[in-house]
Amino acid sequence: LAASTALSGTYVPNTSYPLTFGARADGGQLALSGFIDEPAFYTNALTAGQIAAHYAAATTNAAGYASQILALHPAGYWPFNDGFNPPVAANSGTSGAAFNGAYLNWSTTTPDFQAPAYAGLEAANAVLQVFGTNGQAALPPLNLNTNTVTFECWLKRNGDQPNYAGVLMHRDAYGTNACGLGFHGANNHLGYWWNDASSTYNWDSGLQPADGQWTYAALTISPSQAVISMYDGTTWSAATQSLSHANQAFAGVTRIGSDGGLSGRWFKGSIDEAAIYSSALSQTQLRNHALSAFGSTNLVFFTQLPVSQAAYAGASASFSSQVSGTPTISYQWKFQGANLLAATGLPLSFASVDYTNAGPYALAASNNYGGVLSPAATLTVLPPPSVTNLTYRLLPGGAGQALDLIWPSGTLYSASNVTGPWTPVSGASAPYYQVPIAPAAPSLFFKAE
């Protein structure tokens, strides 16, 4: 490309966008499909004869090409002879090297997600690291022409994700027809796109990968529904969107780590083991993939976690859970971190709860291949509806008696005199607070309001 007429004035570089090769600098939508070599940039207009000489040198005297370019003092000249690491995002799937990808925009690989912590991975495993403002791997057109597809990968968030950050995302050459797995809005929940329809990217799965932790994520598309699945090493979760999905060509670039290069939609963190299938994998197949990273598909995992709840004093309560794994699973409920005596089954039930039952409960489940511990679920014991203000009861204990203060809501105050001044009791929150009774303790008055 050269000016056809004489130019005047002083050269002023455009500092709004970087100089890029192979795609536009304003988002990378119109990407070149092919090869580029020996690009050069001059701050003056070369003559037609100089350009012809360069062409002739490249076609008849390749060894002397670089010296001819440099003789005209280009501002920039990139022969692309220097190797770089990683050279290519190699495809290990059935399509082979035809679907190899390219690392773009300062993306890099770094050692992580390795054995022995993840027994199914290599001890020297490396992952794609991207930065929330740049970095991605780009794949050539997959040409799937389907509405039955599965995307899967392992990802590790590095903080809050940009609005609609892409993870495995396809767009055509004009930035439309988005299809793939990403994040819904800016709430760190997983989401998806199909044919750029708002009914897809506005749907919230409610599934949130933990920050700084490797999490398996998958999107399964079929003609009538989309399923997003997630496994965090303890719990398998899935969310389903019932919606019609039309065939998509996948004729553009598919990117790992961004939504088609669109401004601001870059994933922030690390991605590994990305795969795309032209079929809808079952939940069993996806779970086996996720579990295999830990070395065995027989591992125990939760499909339903215990949920926090509240119950009136004297009423019944129970914690339930669902666990999968083979062979036989053993259970142990824990209260405040310690094993509960004879609490080794499902569900954990209380015929009549008391304030002493209030607190955090967790379920440990294990088999011959390992075990998992659920997050804590809290049981809150409320005063009976008949208690409308502050009441109390005396509790005997090994070190003497204690006063159990009970109130339905509001703040608990204490004072050394019934007329005040009243100050909030540190550490007290409705509906109960226990005060030791000791001869040396000062007399106190209490109220709740």
Descriptive overview:
With 449 residues, the protein is mainly beta. 8% of the residues lie in helices and 35% in strands. The strands form 8 sheets. The chain has a 7-stranded antiparallel β-sheet with strand order 4-5-15-7-11-12-13, with helices on one face. The radius of gyration is 32 Å and the shape is elongated.
Provide key terms for this protein.
449 residues, 4 helices, six-stranded antiparallel beta sheet, elongated, mainly beta, 8% helix, seven-stranded antiparallel beta sheet
First-residue to last-residue Cα separation? 80 Å
Could you describe the largest sheet, including whether it forms a barrel? Answer: 7 strands, antiparallel
With strands numbered from the N-terminus, the spatial order across the biggest sheet is 4-5-15-7-11-12-13
Structural class: mainly beta
Number of helices: 4
Report Rg.
32 Å
Catalogue the unreliable spans: none
Number of strands: 31
Strand content: 25-35%
Mean pLDDT: 88
The best one-word shape is elongated
Share of helix among residues?
A: under 10%
Compact overview of the structure:
The chain is mainly beta and 449 residues long. Helices cover 8% and strands 35% of the residues. It contains four helices and 31 strands.
